[in-house]
Write a structure and sequence with these properties.
Oligomer: single chain
Number of domains: 1
Strand content: 25-35%
Strand order of the largest sheet: 1-6-2-3-4-5
Order of helices and strands: EHEEEEHE
Number of helices: 2
Length: 154
């Protein structure tokens, strides 16, 4: 008994593309400037994606703000494999590094609030020169982050 139905490979259909583009890791596109025009729902989705990547990949997230006093950085790195605790490392050129452990919910709320600001962080400071560049938020490989225990600029 012969069947009219053929398997896709028998019809010359190739399921594997002939030329594969090198794929970027999913976290590499998780970047945002502040201020931005994203809706609250879009920011929630963005932050959830960031938290998932921080938990499942060897990456951290960095919020960077510049002003007349120098650079301020806040970095978030998963502190446990379940993704319920995160290490927050904050750097201020005047004060140095400060580290603390935070819950997932606290990091989520902090990121949502910070990424929704209508102006860069530096404009919220009391100084005579406003920030000229937007703040940036980016997910990076952990070895590219600078933490309190490291020295030198990366």
């Amino acid at each position: 008994m012969t069947s009219e139905r053929q398997h896709p490979r028998d019809r010359g259909i190739n399921r594997v593309p002939a030329h594969r583009q090198p794929s970027k890791p999913p976290w590499s596109v998780l970047e945002l400037r502040v201020p931005n025009d994203r809706s609250r729902e879009s920011l929630i989705s963005f932050v959830e994606c960031v938290l998932v990547e921080l938990t499942h990949a060897d990456v951290g997230a960095e919020y960077r703000s510049s002003n007349v006093w120098g650079v301020k950085r806040t970095q978030y790195i998963a502190a446990d494999p379940t993704g319920q605790r995160f290490r927050k490392c904050h750097y201020d050129e005047r004060l140095g590094w400060h580290e603390q452990t935070m819950s997932r919910q606290d990091v989520r709320e902090e990121l949502l609030n910070r990424l929704a600001w209508p102006a860069p962080l530096a404009t919220n400071q009391s100084h005579s020169h406003p920030a000229e560049e937007p703040d940036t938020f980016q997910v990076k490989q952990t070895w590219k982050l600078r933490t309190g225990s490291q020295t030198g600029e990366r």
